[in-house]
Known about the structure:
Blueprint: E1 2-4, E2 14-17, H1 22-26, H2 34-57, E3 63-67, H3 73-89, E4 99-102, H4 107-113, E5 120-123, H5 131-134, H6 137-146, H7 149-155, E6 166-170, H8 171-175, H9 180-185, E7 190-193, E8 203-206, H10 209-215, E9 224-229, E10 237-245, E11 250-261, E12 264-270, H11 278-293, E13 302-311, E14 314-321, H12 328-336, E15 343-351, H13 355-365, E16 374-381, E17 386-388, E18 391-402, H14 404-414, H15 421-429
Parallel strand pairs: 1-5, 2-3, 2-5, 3-4
Antiparallel strand pairs: 6-9, 7-8, 7-9, 10-11, 10-13, 11-12, 12-15, 13-14, 15-18, 16-18, 17-18
Amino acid sequence: MKIGSFVPEQTGSVLYAMAGDDCSLHHDLSRLTPKQQVDHQENQVLTCALQVALTGLGKPNDYVALSDPFVEPEWNNMLHQYADSFRAMGLETVPGCNWQYHPMNGYYESVAVDMPAVDLLNLYMISGSNVPLHANAEALRISQNVNSKLHFAENAPLAGIPVPRTQIFLKQDIAHGAADDFYAAHPGGVMVKLLGLAGSRNVFPTTSVANCLEQIAEYGGGIEVLLQERLDTQSWQEMTVDLTITPDTVEISNVRKILFAGGKWVGNYIAPDLVVSDAHAEVLIAVGNYARAQGHVADEGVNCGIDYFIKGDEVIVTEINARWTGGLFPAEFLRRLRISQPAVAFFDMIPCAHRDALMAFQAKHLFPSADSSFAYLPMGFTPFAMDIDGVECFIVWQVVTGDFGAFVQSRDASLPEASFPTATLILKESLS
């Protein structure tokens, strides 16, 4: 059995085993700072939504390793309702008899004990937490290098890949003035990047040295801190693509616009008018060649995401993610369902008390919907009740195709208050 972060288009049987792997790539999970512990737990929770999506993207002879909170009756019933929706949309899906349940802590150790006979074991990424499955020190070293923001910033320019102006300092040196000149040279702000974690938890803007030190206060003086020129989003547009890398080819599989709401990444905009020009493609393919030269490659094809900015023919690459990406899932849903309309893929919140109302809303507007100007594609949800301003909520992940404004209006007319609050921000801040 082969183990790796393969692209979704596999004909053989696959076990999908994906949990919160980002932090363990560079950190010992038993020695995390308090903030890292919280961020890691949030990442584990969010990954559960990806597990649900995998039951829709898989085939009848595939398997999905789910976290055991999905066993609880209210969440398990919802999981089966999602499976029904996936089939109604026209997806093959992984049958319920091929769903496995594993504890969130010790997830991969449990998966290793209950391995089905499959051709491929598909991980989110090769990481420290899933060593019980891959047991491959060289593969882990490759993953650490090619997924490292620091390694990429140092080595990409040597491969002719344009990156923002960047310097790397120890925290203790920043505290003693080493980064003063860098901040002075970039009055528009500086991005701070640290190793580990996901979903922008280790990437944040700063305005001064003091602001930087405040943001990284809990870390020791020996931590490496990457400081990078912050690009003006009035002039530059932030984009992302996924590549498929094989020993002989590097191909662009999809392109997306990154969506922010309230200053945080919340999803992606995917549309036919988002195209990769020849000038941009040349740089992006070069990044794929760079990743392949680092060892990120497989005969079956591996995925590699690229975050980059464009201005005219200019391209600046900010980082690469040699793994599955959050945007790969909706892009794959759209590809398999042959949807060419503009689409917004995003995470949002629903009060637990409104779970039945959500399922009714999904059923009414489920793709392919012919009675409205938009269609709804459920992808996943997290089986956890979280207190948000005194209201127990859970996270849902979805794609809305067609008129997003009409979706928001329908939400207002059909769902109780406090449903999909992020959708309002997306409409105002990213799609206006």
